[in-house]
Amino acid sequence: MHNKKTPKGQKPHKSHQVKKFSNQRKAETPDYDIKKLKSAEVKEKELKDGIRLNKYIANAGICSRREADKHIADGKVKVNNKVVTELGFKVKPMDNVAFEGKPIRREKLVYVLLNKPKGFITTMDDPKGRKTVMDLISAAGDERIYPVGRLDRNTTGLLLFTNDGELAKKLTHPSHKIKKIYQVELDKPITEEDFLKIQEGITLEDGEVKVDNLALLTPDAKSLGMEIRMGRNRIVRRTFEHLGYEVVKLDRTTFAGLTKKDLARGKWRFLKEKEVINLKHLR
User: Fold this and answer.
1) Is 152 part of the annotated catalytic residue set?
2) What are phi and psi of 77, to 5 degrees?
3) Tens digits of per-residue pLDDT, 213-267?
4) Which of 26, 104, 110, 247 is deepest in the core (most CB within 10 A)?
5) Residue 51 CB: number of other CB atoms within 10 A?
6) How many whole angstroms separate alpha carbon 139 and alpha carbon 134?
C-alpha cells in the first residue's frame, strides 16, 4: 500500500454531457484470441463434451444462466431444430441453437474498464431516469455487457464490464477473494483506537469485517487507504459508519490487479488481452 494521496479526479459529467457522450460513434471492440483465454483442459473438454445449454445462451448475451434455465424448461430453445427442455443438455461446437425461433451465436467477448464518476448508479437502467454507468460506456461496441459487481452512487473509481459470465462470476464470488483497494476520506480524523479496531477486525450485523491492509495517507488522519477482499454490500462505508465516522469520499483505485493508470474520471477503455489473461488466471 502506498502512503501517497491519489490525485483527485475530474468532476462528474453533467446530464447533457452524458447524452452527448452516448451519441458518439460506437468503438470497435478488440478481437481477443479466445484460445489464449482458455486453458488447454477447458478447450479440450468443450470440444469433446460440449458446454451446457444455459451457459451457451448466456454467452450469446441473451440472458443470465438462471433465466436461460427457465427459457429451456418453457420450450423456447431448439438445438438442431429440436426443442430441448433438459437443463443439463450439452451443446457441441457445430450445433445450431435457436431461441424463440431466432438463431443465436456466442457473442464476441468484451471487457471494458470504467473510472466511474460520482452521481451515477450501477444498474442497467433506472425507472426514475437517474444517470447510470451504462450511459458512460454506451459507445463501447454493440455487445450487451454488464457491470461486474457494483459501486454505489457516491462512490467513484474502477468498475469492470463484460459479457463473459464465467469471468464475472469468478470476480464476484466470495470464495475467490478478489483484492480491491479504496481511498477513503473521512469527516474527521480517525483515532488510533479505531484504526486498530479495523485492523484487528470488527463485527457488523452481517458478520465480521476482515481488512487486509489499512494505512494513513495524510498527516491529518482523515484520508486512508484500505485493502480488502470481501465483497459485501457497502462494506467500506459501513465499517467506518459503525465507528461513528462519515465517509465523505470513497474511491476504488485498484480492482483485481487493474488500476486507474491513464484513465481519467468518467472515461473507459477496453482491457488488453494480457490483462484479460491475468484476470482469468487469478487465484
Assistant:
1) yes
2) -120, 135
3) 999 999 999 999 999 998 788 999 999 999 999 999 999 999 999 999 999 999 9
4) 110
5) 17
6) 9
Q: Residues 8-15: what's their mean pLDDT?
A: 40
Distance separating alpha carbons of residues 141 and 28, to the nearest angstrom: 6
Is the separation of the CB atoms in 256 and 162 below 8 Å?
Answer: no
Q: Could you tell me which of 106, 87, 99 has the C-alpha nearest to residue 46?
A: 106
Assigned C-alpha cell, 157: 473509481
33 CB-near residues (< 8 Å, 6+ apart): 273
* Residue 207 vs residues 6, 92, 233, 255: alpha-carbon distances, Å: 30, 44, 12, 23
| Cβ 250 vs Cβ 184: under 8 Å | yes
Q: What is the DSSP letter of 106?
A: P
SS3 43: helix
**Whole-angstrom distance, CA of residue 146 vs CA of residue 210:** 28
The enclosing H or E element of 161 equals strand 155-162
Dist. CA 169–CA 257, nearest whole Å:
17
Q: How far is the C-alpha of 107 from the C-alpha of 219, rounded, in Å? A: 50
DSSP 255: E
C-alpha cell at 81: 431444430
Longest pairwise C-alpha distance within the chain:
69
Query: Cα–Cα distance between 223 and 185 in angstroms, integer?
Result: 4
Cβ atoms of 182 and 138 within 8 Å: the answer is no
pTM of the model: 0.73
Residue reference for cell 454531457: 17
* Integer Cα distance of 57 and 38 in angstroms: 19
CA 210 to chain centre: 21
Would you state the torsion angle of the CA atoms of residues 134, 140, 146, 148, taken in this order, to the nearest 10 degrees?
-100
